[in-house]
Every structure is written in C-alpha cells, then in structure tokens.
Write a structure and sequence with these properties.
Blueprint (H helix, E strand, L loop, with lengths): L5 H13 L3 H14 L4 H13 L3 H13 L16
Helix pairs in contact: 1-2, 1-3, 3-4
Length: 84
C-alpha cells in the first residue's frame, strides 16, 4: 500500500528480519533508505539492523544522523539508545 514510503519499508524490513527473512528484509531496507526522508524511529531501526549484521560502521553513521535530528520524531525506546 505504501511502497514508496521510507518508514513503511524500514518497518517491513524490521519485521522481516525478526521473522528470519534476511533477503526480503534487506530488499525492504534498501528501498526504505533509498526513499529518503527517514525519521528518527526509522534511523534507530536501521542502526539496530546494521549492528545485528555486524555492520558497525554503518550502524554508527545512522546513529550519528539520528542524534543530529534528535528533536524530530518519536524515537522509540528513548532510554535504551541514549548517548553516554
């Protein structure tokens, strides 16, 4: 329904990754990132997925982007990803 939405694709990627569907999750993640205009919650999910794939540098880059726009969006689990 929202094939061009970055948030929808990134959420789909998160769910697919939790279901163990790595190839499909990666495709949805790529579509979500390419769609642009990624909100804070989606940046957090991207960073978590990248970290779980041992792509630590990429995860760090998305977290840095997240902290630059920390006042935008809901940013779920605020306590967990807090910067030290």
């Amino acid at each position: 329904m929202f094939a061009n939405s970055s948030q929808a694709n990134i959420t789909l990627a998160w769910v697919l990754s939790k279901l163990g569907k790595g190839t499909e999750a990666q495709a949805a993640l790529t579509r979500g990132i390419q769609a642009g205009n990624v909100n804070a919650d989606s940046l957090y999910l991207i960073a978590r997925m990248m970290a779980s794939q041992n792509q630590k540098d990429n995860a760090k880059a998305f977290l840095e982007q997240l902290f630059r726009q920390s006042s935008v969006g809901t940013f779920m689990y605020r306590k967990e990803p807090r910067r030290s």
